[in-house]
Amino acid sequence: MTGLGIGRGRRAVHALLVAVLCLGATACGGDDNGGGASGSGGDGAAAQKKVGMALVGPRNDGGFNQAHYEGLVAAEKEHGVKGTVVENIAPGQPRVDALKNLAIGNDLVIGVGAEFAAGGLAVAPQFPEKKFVIINGQLSDKAPNLSVYFVREGVPAYIAGTVAAELTKTKTVGFVGGELIPPTKQSDDAFKAAAQKADPSIKYQTVNTGDFNNVSLAKQATATLVSQGADVIFLMLDRAFAGAQQAIEESGKDVKVFSIIVPRCETAKNIVGCATLNASPFVVAIVGDFVDNKLPTGEMKTYGVEDPEIQAFELCPEWAKQPALASIVEEQTKQINDGTLKMPEGV
Amino acid sequence: MDPFGAAWLATTLTLATPLIFAAVGELISERAGVINIGLEGMMLTGAFFSFLVAWATGSFWLGVGAGIAAGMLLAAIMAVLSLKARADQIVVGVGLNILALGLTSFVFEQIFLSRPQAVLPVPERVAVPGLSAIPGIGQAVFRQPVLVYVAWFTVLAAWWVLHRTTWGLAIRSAGETPSAADTAGIRVDRVRWIGILVAGCLGGLGGAVLSIGQVGLFVQQISAGQGYIALAAVIFGGWRPLGVLGACLFFAGTNALQLQLQARNSVPAAVWAAVALVAVVYAVWRLRRPETRSWGTAASAGLVIALGAGLTLARPSVSLPSELWLALPYVITLLALAGLVGRVRMPRDLGIPYDIPYDREAHKV
User: Fold this and answer.
1) Beta-carbon separation of A224 and B11 below 8 A
2) Backbone angles phi, psi at A313, to 5 degrees
3) Half-sphere exposure of B282 (CA within 13 A, CB side)
4) A257: pLDDT strictly greater than 70
5) Which of A120, B76, B204, B310 would disulfide-bridge A134, Cβ 3.0–4.6 Å?
6) Which residues of A touch B207 (CB under 8 A)?
């Protein structure tokens, strides 16, 4: 090959490299182009308010992220807003950048989860004319445009703990969590407190994998707990729930589990109940508050189990037929709501 | 229950298998002189396309083949850009990782977003006759899916090829002194091409293990940085097959250990004893040679040994936060790599493109 030929060839390959990198950068980020919450804007509906939502995981994880995404889709229909969603936002700076990018093109930015707490505190002051809602976030004096809706996920986990104490035969109860965020710790603390209050002889074990969607690690974490004798496990996982169930199946042991966000009762008989979070009406309510200019400022709006449409602990239908379990759930929900049963500190 | 028991062994082998495949592939590539930062992307594309084909065809082995092919395709792009175009190998690798992330996320959403989560059956475990009956560890170590045994065989095959065949000599020469290899008639670029393709093949296979081999499903970013851990394993293993195997087992073992330790209310005595043992091994390794002997090493190792031994005997009820255990594999990785800086020697021409001398152009090398 002559020097000229090598030069042409090299330029062509460099151009190919740039094109490939551009394709990769364009395909990353997961902006929605399909039905539901839309990624495109600027179609002349100037009065239409725009809502951007940031998710830490995929919108079809069958759990936390999907529930909130579906809420945005419902809010589009109910309040006539235009929604944009970005998903799979990695920890650290990407979460800050995601909120910033959403703020540029939207009137309201919703960060779904405590994972966006720090990002909300950093970005909200930079866009004083925009509104920010961080679910399970933190408030700041420097960000009056930042609102926090706090779902006390530990409350239904507490009820699950009492049920777990009733069910366990080995007197060993476990918790598998994902990312170490306040809701994970609150659920862990509440589940443990309730189980050991009901039966102080119960041995309690926790494993956190650091990721709600790491299926392989969740499988190993659950296998670890099962090998150490746990026969009732609270699985605070999204996509990784499938991995945890695989570990239980492969062990051949009778291990009962609780799920979160979305009841998965139809998928397996060992799922006793779920700390349900019906994020759809929750997100619709948030967007409604925004549209009506009623976003809370200065203090968090919190949800326990007082509104079963939003959050509750529910037994799966087959398990709900057991009077002892049904009675525990009904009684504890009532006591929590009327204040006679206090949650552990921090829950 | 002993934290280093059968459950820990079983988890270690499971976590190590995808690392072993990826790291051995990377070893071949780096011994040939090409640093393949795109290994993470190769694992991710292998994981996705193996899942896609297995889901579409119902065949596990067709899925594995697709994962290998996907990894090799990405490796071919790497080879064209880094060998033909002489682009910086690290830049190309980073670009390929971004491409893999975007491509797999995009295609996954197009096909699976509107469907319920698809979960495929994971392969049955195969028991090694006789060995699987060993009390205690038999079932944990010798009753594994087939690909676990294939991973171990891959390590042995890599050792044999690199050190017992002329082809292995060509690979090593291409990475150490490509000009000498060229003079001896070895086609350096061809050897490096093959090295990169082997990395893609085994990286894709490692990805297939992650998805259809272990959990039967795919989630975006399922590789979760394991390609980078595999890169570190090659360095930690000193660019030797058995060293790489040891490194992979070490990383997987610490990851498995942190799961065990999180589940306990206090740190078991066995862990303190293990810390002391590691310090003893390190001290012996460093102090036995005059050139690495120092008072600093002796003092620090002695302190750790005394602390470990003391805690083993005292058995305090110490509970450490989950965050610390989660960070443990990465902290140990950093410590291990830091301890090896300057003590391992990488292939001399790693990452340096080889420019064929002008006077051999006539031979169309």
Assistant:
1) yes
2) -105, 125
3) 21
4) yes
5) A120
6) none
pLDDT(A125) > 80: yes
Residues in chain A: 347
Size of chain B in residues: 365
Find residues 253-272 of chain B whose CB sits inside 8 Å of chain A. Answer: 255-256, 259-260, 262-265
- The residues, ordered by sequence, that sit 6+ positions from B281 with a Cβ below 8 Å of its Cβ are none
Under the phi-then-psi rule, with left for phi > 0, alpha for psi from -120 to 50, and beta for the rest, what region is B216?
left
Element (H, E) at A217: helix A215-227
Comparing CB atoms, the residue among B11, B86, B215 nearest residue A215 is: B215
With beta carbons under 8 A apart, name residues in chain A contacting B220: 58, 88, 213
The residues in B 164-223 lying below 8 A from A, measured between CB atoms, are 210, 214-217, 219-222
Domains of chain A: 50-151+280-303 (3.40.50.2300), 154-277+316-338 (3.40.50.2300)
Terminal Cα distance for chain B, rounded: 62
Which structural domains are found in chain B, ordered by start? Answer: 6-239+347-363 (1.10.3470)
- Measure in Å the smallest separation between the Cα of A240 and chain B Cα atoms: 9
- Give yes or no for residue A62 having a pLDDT over 80: no
**Residues B52/B204, Cβ–Cβ less than 8 Å:** no
ipTM of the complex, rounded to two decimals: 0.77
Q: How large is the angle between the packed helices B241-262 and B322-340, nearest 10 degrees? A: 160
